[in-house]
Design brief:
Blueprint lengths: L6 H10 L3 H23 L2 H17 L10 H22 L1 H9 L19 H18 L3 H10 L6 H8 L3 H19 L11
Helix pairs in contact: 1-2, 2-3, 2-4, 3-4, 4-5, 4-8, 6-9, 7-8, 7-9, 8-9
Length: about 200
């Protein structure tokens, strides 16, 4: 969809003019896709929540500079990717600190507890949950650009051209990155996958 026909870009132009209701509408529509993308990029729930919030904070702070040159979702996921890259760079500079943050709770907060749903699931759902874990692990093992491209492919709104804009690559390079990522995933998941889900 061209940017000039994108209803979300029209909403963002209203945000640019100070319309807070338009901003709320965009947050409601995109908060779950952004959260999914960030969480699968960083694989840390607490950091993902913080980064996802920062994505929308950055959108609001940048509203005056917004131009209708691309679809809103392309611009949004470019911001999301850049913030994920910043977090990954921070982790690489402070690996011990990141490991500590991931595995310890703040002293003034109670430890977060999660229900172990697998205990109550029938066998076929347990298998599905295990497959999901294998897919997540395989995704995490991809180079960042391949993982990002694959995750963006799962966003129904984004075309290859728009993914190329987010990645800052040519269209042909983007298609190549996606192809390599899919091939790597298929190879890693061959023992578990009976469907062609990742080919679509």
């Amino acid at each position: 969809m061209p940017a000039n026909l994108d209803p979300d870009a029209a909403l963002m132009l209203r945000v640019k003019r100070g319309d807070r209701a338009a901003f709320t509408g965009l947050v409601e529509k995109y908060k779950q896709p952004v959260m999914n993308f960030v969480h699968r990029s960083l694989r840390d729930e607490t950091e993902a929540e913080d980064v996802a919030q920062n994505v929308f904070l950055q959108v609001y702070k940048s509203r005056a500079r917004y131009e209708r040159t691309a679809k809103f979702s392309t611009w949004l996921f470019t911001i999301a990717r850049n913030l994920c890259l910043n977090e990954l760079r921070r982790r690489s500079r402070h690996p011990a600190e990141s490991l500590e943050e991931t595995h310890t709770e703040h002293e003034d907060q109670p430890a977060r507890q999660y229900e172990d749903k697998k205990i109550f699931l029938p066998p076929e759902k347990m298998l599905h949950g295990e497959l999901a874990e294998k897919i997540e692990a395989a995704l995490a093992g991809l180079p960042e650009i391949q993982r990002t491209a694959i995750l963006l492919c799962r966003q129904d709104e984004l075309s290859y051209e728009e993914i190329a804009r987010v990645l800052g690559c040519s269209l042909s390079a983007t298609k190549s990155v996606i192809h390599r990522g899919r091939e790597t995933l298929k190879e890693k998941l061959k023992p578990y996958l009976q469907t062609g889900d990742w080919e679509s």
